[in-house]
Design brief:
single chain, 333 residues, alpha+beta, Four Helix Bundle (Hemerythrin (Met), subunit A)
Amino acid sequence: MHFYSYTKRIIVSTLIIALSMSQFTWANGASKSNNQEPVRQDKVPSSVQSDVESKGKEEVTSKRKALVKEALTALSETKKALKALEDNRPKDALKALAEVTGQLEIVVSRDPNLAFVPIDVEVTSHDIYADLETINKAKEEAEDLLEGGNVQEARVLLAGLASELVMNTINIPLATYPDAIKAVVPLIDQGKIEEAKAALQAALQTLVVTNTLTIPLPILRAEALVQKANELTEKLENPELRDTQKSGETDAANKAEDEKSQEELILVQLQNARKQLEMAEALGYGVKENRYKEFQESIENIEKKVRGKESTKGIFASLKQSLSEFKQFLFGE
């Protein structure tokens, strides 16, 4: 490989890794993150970003509602039994394991064919603060690497190209977990505490990750930006919704200036929505559905209406509906 080509690939690889922000995890309702403030690929208004975060958390909450209470208790009691053994309290450990067995029997009795029972939801965030040009260059470079058989170098480049929430469901495997717990009891009875502790630790390590759900952040941001633009447009088209002076009157100059400022703000929201959709498409989210051209054309149509001071009634509703359907498709709902 020529030195220039090799150096170029190293630089691009390093750039993409640097542009990929650190991950953080939501688990058990808590949030874990590094101390750095994540930098977004485009400057998104804080109110819009707040809406996006809320929608992401709504998905987590929805998932968590499906967790099985008895299974959660079984897991908690398993950990309690392990702690009892570590504190040399075998009787307490046996009591906790009896509770584990009982709770899992309740789950099985409800559905004997159930293979996995959900006990937790874990969400990892991956974001990127590269611009569109950098992403496209990285993709082109990765394609060149793959064509040359340099799979691992391409893998490094592609690893950072994501802007998403990845939601995993953690499950107890009913085919193995109950039997593993029952096998610990005779070990405790025989005084084999170290072996019992090892067996419990092994059981806890058999939890299974299923139902991986990917939520593209650019789609959430685009949807929030379109909603914000819609709200502003409604105020522009309906003067009664706008704030007025205490007297209830504004002079013509102030009114014209206010309308111009409002119009510019609407167009900024729509332009940012465009960028988010371009980002989503560049990152490959739902590209097989061929919806991005439709979205961009709808936004362009709205922009023309706003500039021409024409009514946007119905156009926003159609775009929001299309984005919502696309989002639900990507969420696997």
